[in-house]
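ok so heres the complex, two chains, lmk if somethin looks off
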Amino acid sequence: DAKTTQPPSMDCAEGRAANLPCNHSTISGNEYVYWYRQIHSQGPQYIIHGLKNNETNEMASLIITEDRKSSTLILPHATLRDTAVYYCIVSRMGSARQLTFGSGTQLTVLP
Amino acid sequence: DGGITQSPKYLFRKEGQNVTLSCEQNLNHDAMYWYRQDPGQGLRLIYYSQIVNDFQKGDIAEGYSVSREKKESFPLTVTSAQKNPTAFYLCASSIRRGGTDTQYFGPGTRLTVL
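and the predicted structre for the whole thing:
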């Protein structure tokens, strides 16, 4: 699976959009981009995933560049409860496979 | 409510004792997984199971054992052979949708060996 690079930390003001970047320049054509987050001492929470088109659900939007080498997770109106470590994962999900979590981005939403 | 439950949330054991961590899901997912997370680190796969009565070792299976007698249940036993068992243990399950599997995680069990 392709490796990902994320900034170690970011701050965001409450109520503003949080834009979390991820680089995955070695991604293959059959690999998906997944985003999870983990609040301290809890299990990771699935947020969203995509292959090449932009995706949106009730939690977030995922913007994938045309060359698929990078993506951005957007939380449109960040709240204090969105403070967590956010993980960008690239994986060829064709069968049961291990998810490789890197070090992620610690997002802190400030009041 | 559908979801994944892990029990207990906190578990203490004495060195040399075996202990079993519970994982149950009512999502009708086929595949289930066990991961281990150490402080400040990512998740490492211990075992996974794609169907009942079948499971495969992950990267760090030594000192652990599992069973998959029912679709809903995937218990993990931490044996006395596991040298550093103190960690946060996470169970996950997944289902295939649109050609891809999405894994969903339980709340975790924090195991401390005294």
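quick notes: Chain A has a mean pLDDT of 91. thats all i got rn
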